[in-house]
Design goal:
- By secondary structure, this protein is of the alpha/beta class.
- The chain has two domains: 198 residues, 3-Layer(aba) Sandwich (Rossmann fold); 73 residues, UDP-galactose 4-epimerase, domain 1 (Alpha-Beta Complex).
- The protein has ten helices and twelve strands.
- The chain has a six-stranded parallel sheet with strand order 2-1-3-4-5-10, sandwiched between helices. Strands 6-9 form a two-stranded parallel ribbon.
- The chain is globular.
- The two termini are 36 Å apart.
Length: 312
Amino acid sequence: MFVKNARILITGAGGLLGHGIIQALNWLGREDLRLLCPSRQEMDCLEYASVEKFFQENSPDYVIHLAAGVFGLKGNLDNQLGILSKNSIINHNILVNSAKIPVKKIFFAGSVASYSFPYAILPLKEEHLLDSYPHWGEFGYAMSKIHALAYLKILENDYSIPYTYALFTNLYGPYDRFNKENGHVIPSLICKAISAVKENRPLPVWGTPGTTRDFLHSHDAGIAAILAFRKFDGIINIASGTEVKMERLARVVADNFGLKDIEWQVSRPVGIPRRSVDIGRLKNLGFEPQYDLETGIADTVAWVNNNPNLRT
């Protein structure tokens, strides 16, 4: 799909998903591709003038837009307005300037958090995305992602710029943000496991053993993203297609740290009690995850052990 000597702008390239996508692009073996991965100093996504200047000077052919303010459940609940406004500004700046160039195609990193709740059906299917409002626990973040879809539809209709709107499941892996209070499920649990080992106590886990989610390793997410970008236009789920109980996840994390006991903190927020994701569209493109939960957690823990200066 990428034209010869294409310039590909990747916003948020330094994050979890960004590293996975860069790795997947490198695996294409296209030495002619030029990846534009600006730092905040080179392009501040929150400042329109900074974004406009970067686009004018670099004229990207494609945009892979990942940059966003994002938290786990507690962080989302505590920062609803800030997340909504910050992400809306970022999306506006990137997408309006994509139209000005204009770019050839846009990849947008959305989230399964944007699905209408209560769910019409499980596993979640793309056609039910806009049935109603998202769950309140992720409302501000989810609505900022839905708002961006309006830009993409207009860019497609009025500017002939196609897009891939990817609904990502819970991602994890190297280069994540590791924060006990505001992080996502897996990096938060890993941080808690490190503390539990030091303090010789059980692994504390929010919620109940029966709560479920779909988890995807960042390397698999990168491969799936580039596959979808190259071969699919429209809305597509990017997930593992496997529904995992928190009981299994907690046990796998605990085992990687030699912890025997788990303390379920049932009074803490649970969020959505059950989530599973249909990946029929992605599988039709030829995608199969390479990491199961056990392999992925072991890989992530090994990376954490070798990288003491973690992002928080």
